[in-house]
């Protein structure tokens, strides 16, 4: 009996335990179901303290002028019912102003009995007393302090949790922000502008970069159709979508990314723009069509591979590299299988190393020794081109630089690929070292050859080494010493920018055309590039309908190509001249105590002196010219006026050029106010005598 009693007691105890566990599981299920109910219908069913506008919060109170209404977020014992004007002031000052904002919603502070206060030291649990708190819009947690709530939301964002973690169905499309650029819609995450915190990085500041690349691809699409182009780092897929949406059947677009979340985002953006998607996530040809567009029949291939892998496996006509940071790790793969006369464009965002802020990183990535100079942006572009040239030469390919742009956030380089060892050798010969004077900022590329010179300072046009103590110059590089622009290609890019309505790219492209030709004229025509007869690039003939060289075409014979190439080379030698390397900043070389002339006027003065001159996109106050620095300073000093005569008319110019700085300016008019004040204030006879000697007419008049 005792044993049976013990067994009965154990059975009863086990039943009690199972009942307690059952009640706990039921309570947890109920709580989870409550949370799921709130989050699954997000953002429709949410806590009343989470609202978009203050008016929505006032609607909860049902404000009426004649009746007293309680606060919907405060208990009755904390805030008694009052009239509408007082309740409106209470909601605005106590709840709305201290709210936490997230994706257009405001998490207002709540005083309702949702968050119990911890028990006091005595141990009495004050369940009736509740504390002020916030309700998290993502996980429905209650947090007391506002700063803690902000940190809590930031942790969700850093983990990529922008929806409730209890949702098992896919998030609605309306939860993503939709941005529009160049008639292309893309969905982005809330933290899309921070690359360290998101998989689908989208930078609105790179819009100009995307437009320039689009123009380059449009020019290539006019030369041959169709072309296979690759966006190796798709992220949101905005660039590849723009290519496919506007160029349509002229291009076959492949968007690649190694991140699974980015690939999913690219697929959604393709469906958003009514594009067909062809998925290829493996290295073999296992393709699967995911969906059909309703209006557009174009197909975009989306791949999930490493960028180096896909460029090794397949050949493309156009490749764009835009990694986060430097792109040197992908250059060898890019030039391995790119087709002849294809284009490789790369965007480098590691401006800290390229702009000489982290010189050791530039040495590690690019193998270049650099210092901070006045022309550091052009120096950065030539560093990147030198790395591109070496990578192409390792694959027996040469390059012709079509475009090089260095702005605040990025360095963009667009090159055309020429197959063969001879173009590779010619391109490699253009990589040289640069001698830079640290006193006057004069610079010159070292001469070709392997012989060591006894005094490298003799190559510099300046004489700072003889007049200044110590070593005055440094050797920078190796750098690209050739041209940075191709005028014919840039003019066709201007035409494409006008045709597709790229307003932001047009002013920059026109500046680049002037810079490539080293001229100040800004007259452009928007006629079709097919009407131009001088379309020669990289020593290769580009077919145009109105060119007489087509008469040499003999189908099926190689000699016709040679005739065309030779004619194009002769045309290049006769009609083209490379722009001068580097530029001078007019503020850097200004004279102390003198007012400089206007920049446009100074360009005219240099042009009248017989030098080639233009402005540069690298520096708004930069002047690209073939004039030596000494002559540059002489002309700048000649047309500068002293600071104390800045109010004079701009008519007279300085006549003395080789005299001292104090004797260069002559009097412009008699009876000047400053001279009269000087005579009145000067009481010493010696000073008056000196003044009478220098200005006898003034003294006689006074």
Automatic annotation (TrEMBL):
Signal peptide: none annotated. GO terms for biological process: tRNA N2-guanine methylation. It comes from the Eukaryota. Keywords: Isopeptide bond, Metal-binding, Methyltransferase, Nucleus, Phosphoprotein, RNA-binding, S-adenosyl-L-methionine, Transferase, tRNA processing, tRNA-binding, Ubl conjugation, Zinc, Zinc-finger. InterPro entries: SAM-dependent_MTases_sf, Trm1, tRNA_met_Trm1_C, Znf_C2H2_type. It is found in: Nucleus, Nucleolus. Residues 1-42 are annotated as: Disordered. Pfam families: TRM. This is tRNA (guanine(27)-N(2))-dimethyltransferase. It comes from Stercorarius parasiticus.
